[in-house]
C-alpha cells in the first residue's frame, strides 16, 4: 500500500509466442523468466498482492511454486496473438473479489527491472498526482534519422528535412516505452482502457535495465550481462 492506496500487480504470461516460443518460462541465469518478475514484486515495499494471468497450467504451477497467486486461468480468447493486453487486465480486475486502487503491470520480458524501479514509479505517481506512469528509456538514435523504404528500394525520411545528416546533439532527446513498468489508477483505467493518455508521466530507466526480451538474441544478451556482473 502507498499513500493509503492498495496496489495490485499483474504479471501477464501466456504460453504462446511466435518470436521466442515459451519465452515466459525459458531459463535465464538459472531460473524461469517469470520468476524474475515475481522476485521483483516480492521485494516491493508497496505491492499488496501480485498475481499471474496465464493460459498455461505449466506457467501457473511455476508461479505457485514461487509463492505467486494464480486466482484463475486466462480464457483462451485472451491468450491469442491478437488479444488486447488491456482486455487481459480488465478481465483480471473483474474476476478478483476484492477491489484495488492501483494497477501495476510487470511483464516477464523485462527481467532487469528491479523492485527499486517498481517502488520509485509508484512514488512518482503519488508525487505527481498522476493517473498513470509508464517506464521509458532514452532512445539511442534520434527519431529524425529513421527512414521508410519505398517499393523500389529507395529510402524516404520519416521527417523530411533539408538537413538530413546532423549531429545527434542538435536533436531533442526522445524516449521510448521499455515495457518494464506500467501503473494506473484502477477506476481511471476502467474508463480510458489504456495506460497512455495526455496525463501519463514517464519514469526514466537506464538502458542497461531496459532490455525487453523478444528473441533468442535478446535472451542471450541478458544472460551475458548477468554472467559478467
Q: In words, what does this structure look like?
A:
This protein folds into two domains: 7-138 and 174-223, Spore Coat Polysaccharide Biosynthesis Protein SpsA, Chain A, CATH 3.90.550; 140-172, no CATH class. Helix content is 28%, strand content 21%. The chain contains six helices and ten strands; from the N terminus they run E-E-E-H-E-H-H-E-H-E-E-E-E-H-E-H. It has helices spanning 33-43, 57-65, 85-94, 115-128, 186-192, 216-228; strands at residues 7-12, 27-28, 31-32, 49-53, 102-105, 132-138, 147-149, 155-157, 175-185, 201-204. A six-stranded mixed beta sheet has the order 4-1-5-9-6-10. Strand 2 (27-28) and strand 3 (31-32) form a beta hairpin. The longest helix is centred in the middle third of the chain and has 14 residues, at 115-128. The mean pLDDT is 92.
Q: Which CATH architecture of the largest domain is right?
A: Alpha-Beta Complex
Q: Summarize model confidence as the mean pLDDT.
A: 92
The total count of helices amounts to 6
- In CATH, what is the homologous superfamily of the largest domain? Spore Coat Polysaccharide Biosynthesis Protein SpsA, Chain A
CATH topology of the largest domain: Spore Coat Polysaccharide Biosynthesis Protein SpsA, Chain A
- How many domain regions? 2
Q: Tell me what portion of residues adopts beta-strand conformation.
A: 15-25%
Care to count the β-strands? 10
Q: Let me know the largest β-sheet.
A: 6 strands, mixed
Q: Mind telling me the CATH class of the largest domain?
A: Alpha Beta
Stretches where pLDDT is under 50 for at least 5 consecutive residues are: none
- State the end-to-end CA separation: 32 Å
Spell out the helices and strands N to C.
Answer: EEEHEHHEHEEEEHEH
Sheet with the most strands: spatial strand order: 4-1-5-9-6-10
Q: Which of globular, elongated, flat, extended, rod-shaped describes the shape?
A: globular
Report the radius of gyration as a whole number of Å.
19 Å
**How much helix, percentage-wise, in residues?**
25-40%
Which structural class matches the secondary elements?
alpha/beta
